[in-house]
Amino acid sequence: MDSGNVAWILASSALVCMMIPALALFYGGMVGSRRILNMMMMCFGGASLVAVLWALFGYSMAFGNSVGGLGLIGDLTEYPGMGQMLAKDDSASIPLILFAAFQLFFACVTTALVAGAAAGRMKFGAWMLFAGIWSTVVYFPIAHWVFAFTSADGSVVGGWIASGIKAIDFAGGTAVHMNAGAAALALALVLGKSSGWPKMEHTKPHSRPLVLVGAGLLWVGWFGFNAGSALTAGQSAAVVFLNTAVAASAGLLAWALVERVRHGAATSMGAASGLIAALVAITPACGAVSPLGALAIGAIAGAVCSLAIEWKFRLGFDDSLDVVGVHLVGGIIGTLLIGLFATDAAPNGVNGLFYGGGFTQLGIQALATVSVLVYSFGVTWILAKILDRTIGLRIKPEDEMRGIDLAAHSELAYLTDEDPVELGSPQRA
Fold first, then answer.
1. Going by C-beta distance under 8 Å and a sequence separation of 6 or more, which residues neighbour residue 360?
2. Which one of 99, 130, 397, 418 has the largest count of C-beta atoms within 10 Å of its C-beta?
């Protein structure tokens, strides 16, 4: 074992874990003051449930030996409960159980991302049931496709995207961001529009400073997300670290510039969103491109996503917190642009079109993109429809109008003298 690698992945795992409360702050600031607790609870609750499922069977589904060698799903019986990982393996650079912990937080963050499409109008119990089933039937299989690689000796067969067509996704543009974005779109369509959408005074962002704090913490956590995916403390992690930094900066500036040209002002919400959009786009490409390529991808993502968030108004779907416009579109941009900007000088060692590689890698990236989008959207839509017809997804209209926090959690984030006593709390003087 390499102590430096172990220390780096331990630190990276903690950084990715921090992305869960960071996302809760980011999303929480974007909703109304009587929706923030529910939004944050959806992030924490969904992530916690997924962590439990990951330990029970999720890791096996994602990283177990592929059933039948088809590259579709891992063997459920290989690591149930993770007890098999307690034994030390001196031949590995890092402990297998540490890798499992690192990947656990990817599953948690991905599920929490989907919550942004349901802000303020979905029953908390229904969300928790949805999150558990969705992670099992959507995230775990797709994680196997994208993240599970066939071992060098061929004894363990990985996913069909990672080891079959060999698409590049360094840290989760397909498995995390496109997956969450497609699922968010399907969930938003089944849930329907919020009461009064799109002109809803009660759902406007109540704290832009919280949004900026959340975005800043997500940026910090993203270094663990991307650079940690190198799984070693070496050259690859260093390249990815720099690419992540410059791409995010370019995205923030590009979104702000588009806003300034189109609307006359660069807003704080736009800056935070541009930062996140670029981080989403560089996630799959961070190990495939040069710093100049990272700048280009970040800038393109910031500019395009700033336009994409308006599609929900034109197409008539209520994606409350722009999961589709940022994560779905940003993930597609980053994944496809690998086929253009990839250079064999970067850790992934593949040339894209602009570096003499032809259209081959672009075609591979496109196949991976379409496959993940179709599976994630289709299965999520069916799941949401079934839950809606059985237990119901929406809260009562009156609870939606007054804010979901009191109805779902018997609490309010900000109490005034006019507010009723919190139902679940002791009487206060």
1. none
2. 130
Contact 184, 328 (CB under 8 A): yes
For residue range 370-426, what is the model confidence (pLDDT) as tens digits? Answer: 999 999 999 999 999 999 999 999 999 888 888 899 999 989 999 776 665 555 554
Residue 154 Ramachandran class (φ > 0 left, ψ -120 to 50 alpha, else beta): left
Q: 153 Cβ partners below 8 Å, 6+ apart?
A: none
Query: Interhelix angle for 3-30 vs 268-285, to 10°?
Result: 140
Q: How crowded is residue 48: how many other Cβ atoms within 10 Å of its Cβ?
A: 15
Q: What is the DSSP letter of 173?
A: I
Tokens read off for 228 = 């940690």
261-264-270 Cα angle (round to 5): 80
* pLDDT for 429 beyond 50: no
Q: Is the pLDDT of residue 284 over 90?
A: yes
105 CB neighbour count, 10 Å cutoff: 26
293-329 per-position pLDDT tens digit: 999 999 999 999 999 998 888 888 888 899 999 999 9
Would the pTM count as exceeding 0.70? yes
Distance CA 247, CA 244 (A): 5
Cβ atoms of 274 and 253 closer than 8 Å? yes
Cα torsion for 339, 341, 346, 347, to the nearest 10°? -30
Rounded CA separation 313/256 (Å): 21
Taking only the tens place, the pLDDT of each residue in 5-25 is: 999 999 999 999 999 999 999
Q: Is 289 exposed, middle or buried (0-12, 13-18, 19+ CB in 10 A)?
A: buried
